[in-house]
Amino acid sequence: MKQTLFVQLPPPRFSFEIPPTNIPLAAGFLIAALGRDPELTLKVDVLPPESVDVLGDKALCSDILRREPGIIAFSLYVWNVERSLFLASTIKRRSPGTIVLVGGPEVTPDNRWVLDHPAVDLAVFGEGESRITTLLGSTQKRAFTGVPGIAWKDPKRRLQVNTDSPEPWNLDACEYPYLDRRINPSPDGTLFLETMRGCPFRCKYCYYHKASCSLRFHSNERLDKVLDFVYSPESKIREMYLMDPTFNARKGFRRLLRSMARRRRRSEYPKLHTELRADLLESSDLPVLQKAGLASAEIGLQSTNQEALRAAGRKGDPEKIAVGVGLLKQIGVEVTTGIIVGLPRDTPRDFSRTLQWLNKKEAYSVVHPFVLSILPGTDFRANAEQLGLVYDPKPPYHIRSTPTFKSEKIQSALLECEQAFDMEMDYIAPPSLVDRGPEVLQSVEDGYYVSKWIVNPARETWRKDFLQVMEKASDPFTLWFKGEYHKEHMIEILTEFANTNPHAVVHVVLELQEPPPMDFFEAALASAGNPDLFLNRSYFPLCGEGEVVNINFCIIVPDTGNTAGKRAISRKYSSFATVIWDSPEYRRDLVTRLETPMLISWELESHDVTFKRGLNRLLKFHGSNHEEVLFRNPSHVRIWKRLASGWNTDWQFKESILQSI
Signal peptide: which range, if any (predicted)? Predict the structure, then answer.
């Protein structure tokens, strides 16, 4: 019997080496529910992180098809739905008999573009544990008529929908997934913990309270088993995220905190992260939060405009929130305060007042502004026309305008927020520029994947590796042109990559004998850029309509120390590329004048005293921008990250570098 393969694609990211926190907790619960039926002979598996979190579109499709699944179950979220459906379509073309099942927050009765998608055979609304056994056992006969809360395609590919509500699932009916290793924490030691389902609040921009219509809790006994696992001496859990919508609004949250604090004792880990209602905090909660290791908390202020809050179904007193945030900051908790741009009945002036209030009250450690998303299944989506809401019909469903917040003012509001809190919301860090060491492949056949391809475009030697690199490319991917400029070959390679791996992030590094002419960037974006990708749309309206961020250009230029010349180069390329200044040798007097982002190309051994002195001077003058200090030597990278940020690189993905030069 062919297997059912659960697939949860990660959010888009710009750094290959840092694994995404992509834990398929929902799939784990579904597989646990399937395990309750001893007569069920289905083979089930979850696509592992070394595949789903690493591979680009082409390689990922090939890996899934190699496993020959009879059913592929995709978990669809706003950040992965388009790529998931692209993969589903590609797989169905090559294996028409494969059944595609979808679930997750993007699967709602009103989100017809997902339900109508030609690759989708079967869709589940809300939690799926109560129906997964029936559905997987009925796929061959397609006998779904009596199953509540699903949609399916009949033999003539017509969409059928059953919106009846299923019975709520007993959360204690099966084992918690981590305990039998159905799923694992992420490679960096992060664990997601769900302690309840449902939400006591009814925010009109949120679907969660509708997906779980009642409040249900994992029992204390069940959670104690998970906590025993988390806090065991063998555990390598360093971060635990409580996935409850508002942790301190659940009954028994203090008992759960005390249980964590008792197990944690004097250990530094795991650190705890959660979402809280600051206005519900009491001063007596602080000692136990501190003992439990609370490191960060998300607080949903959203706005100080009471009329906008009422329109959004929000309750809460901003002044009490400010007091609660102050209490959390007193015990060293990093507080991320969320605010929303574009709420109905909010105006640009109201948004400015919210920013001013935040600054005055200092009710934040970090401010996180969100553009309002009109998500499927929400009250705002159902009443969008009545409320006069104009929004993007594709993910992330950003608001375009409201009767009180015109489209041109949304970008202005975000820029005002950047200025008010000295932040850069569209910052993209430069990629790794390691080009030597054990990560370099001897041939393309030696690598399970290729994360970086270094090419001399003027030489035809790259053609022998071309197709295999496209088929093994990772996501993100670095395409490094080194040597002589050859526009036609560079455009050819970049275009083929975009056609083969359309949803991937690609860093284009240009280390050429002369910086490229400006028309290269325009031609490259015209042939390979796709403004309609989710990642590119998610940066709108901060970035302009049609801008592309999934293709990033970096130019490596020797640092001559000529300040005027460097400024001229930076000005010339600033609209298209990041200029990275290459420092080929260590000179003590030049370290203070080096500019970031910089590339350290010193030919010094890691144990060399001169190298250590150079690193210390770099740390002194550039430690605040440590992510923009780059190295060609991988051992130098590891030392720098430990020195500058305490970062342990052992859990990072290993680069797989191919050189065709």
Answer: none
